Amino acid sequence: KMALNTLAKMATWNNKHLPQNVRKSIAAMHEKTNNLNSILTVAWARRIMLVLMAVGGGTGLVYFGMPLNIGNIKFNPYINTSLNALMEVPAIAAGTLLLPITDRRLLVSVSSGIYALCCIICSFVSNGWIQIVVELTGFLAVCMTFDLTYVFCLELFATEVRSVVVAMLRKAIMAGAAIAP
């Protein structure tokens, strides 16, 4: 009820009216129990959750798979591992700085595209220095996607079902990690 009032107030500030389907969707989600069924019975919530789980699975695969495959890069594995660890900090900083000024969906999509492209390029490049630069760029992008996916997930769902949604995202990420080569 409080969420509907807030949305209605925001709509009037923008000289708009809150559509009936939004009212019905929120009311339907609120009436149901606060578990996985309440997410799966509302079409838009189910669709968003499935997309988030797909993104989470792919991100988990690459996020945990890249460090496991460091030995395949023609570079010193100890230095490479250290550089990968150092890439976490700028990834978090970049994500934090970009969140307020860009669209979340665009940011997650672009960073996912960058790490996917870097993974493909890295498999075809044989020069050690080029390979390490491409791998570090991909790892920076996947770290950013990893962090942003949780933020995106938290912002999309109501407080009542948020813990279930984050748990499902975590399961998808860990499933991706489990199948990492």
From TrEMBL:
Keyword field contains Repeat: no
Coiled-coil stretches noted in the UniProt entry, renumbered to this chain: none
GO cellular component entries: membrane
Subcellular location(s) per record: Membrane
Protein name, per record: Uncharacterized protein
Keywords of this entry: Membrane, Transmembrane, Transmembrane helix
Signal sequence region: none
Segments passing through the bilayer: 48-66, 78-99, 106-130, 136-158
InterPro entries tied to this protein: MFS_trans_sf (IPR036259)
Membrane topology, record value: Multi-pass membrane protein
Source organism (scientific name): Taxus chinensis
Lineage: Eukaryota, Viridiplantae, Streptophyta, Embryophyta, Tracheophyta
SUPFAM superfamilies in UniProt: MFS general substrate transporter
